[in-house]
């Protein structure tokens, strides 16, 4: 990939110019971050696992008619995606209380919510990705009312599908983050699912033991991060021979 033009580098991925107009290559890194980049580490094999898990989920969503930016996997760490105009909103769907929701509302972690809740956050690392309302989104022209409606409908559909998919392999889908983009095709524009779906962006608990199988293992110093990701891949039937994985090197910004 060194000969290709780098378009963007984020916390978990690097985007390179794609082989055809309108495409990009997403390279999944082993870097791990938490608490707005205050905690950083390297997890051997994480990028491979996230690439394969995200491929698996995106393909299934494409099959049921949820439009995504995913085209195909190139190799163990890279996938070909459509270039989209990212909407600067992170969409979080919650089924069970955990994380910041528990902290904000004083809810016990693991408490089922009365119904699934969808929240919006302004995608801005410098501001700490603050929570926003639909009024903010439309007032600042981040997205139109129709686009918000489309995003809500797609998010709830993804939630229904993934809840069943993970439940079938003994995993609870606690919550997850999605990003969306505008895909331009000639004179037409449509909203599509972008970024990734992986244990980096989902809270996943074992259905029997409530053992965490996601990035919270890194956030909370629980250890066994890539082992947990590999177990998710194994249960989904993606990487039956996923390596138990090596070590975690962590660093914390003071």
Describe this entry's structure for a reader.
The protein is an alpha+beta fold. It folds into 2 domains: 6-83 and 223-247, Phosphorylase Kinase, domain 1 (2-Layer Sandwich), CATH 3.30.200.20; 87-206, ATP-grasp fold, B domain (D-amino Acid Aminotransferase, Chain A, domain 1). The protein is built from 6 helices and 14 strands. The chain has helices at residues 46-63, 99-105, 134-139, 145-167, 216-219, 225-235, and strands at residues 6-9, 13-17, 23-28, 31-34, 39-43, 70-73, 78-82, 85-96, 112-122, 131-132, 171-185, 188-194, 202-206, 248-252. Strands 8, 9, 10, 11, 12 and 13 form a 6-stranded antiparallel sheet that branches.
Properties at a glance:
D-amino Acid Aminotransferase, Chain A, domain 1; Phosphorylase Kinase, domain 1; disordered C terminus; about 250 residues; 6-stranded antiparallel sheet; 5-stranded antiparallel sheet; 2 domains; alpha+beta; globular
Q: Helix/strand/pairing class, anyone?
A: alpha+beta
Main beta-sheet strand count, sense and barrel state? 6 strands, antiparallel
How many whole angstroms does the radius of gyration measure?
18 Å
CATH architecture of the largest domain: 2-Layer Sandwich
Give the overall average pLDDT.
Answer: 92
Low-pLDDT parts are 244-254
General form: globular
CA(first)-CA(last) distance: 33 Å
* Total DSSP helices: 6
- What's the CATH class label of the largest domain? Alpha Beta
What is the succession of H and E elements? EEEEEHEEEHEEHHEEEHHE
> What is the number of E strands?
14
The CATH topology annotation of the largest domain reads as: D-amino Acid Aminotransferase, Chain A, domain 1
CATH superfamily of the largest domain: ATP-grasp fold, B domain
Total count of domains: 2
Percent of sequence in beta strands: 35-45%
Q: What fraction, in percent, of the residue positions are helical?
A: 25-40%
The quaternary organization reads as single chain
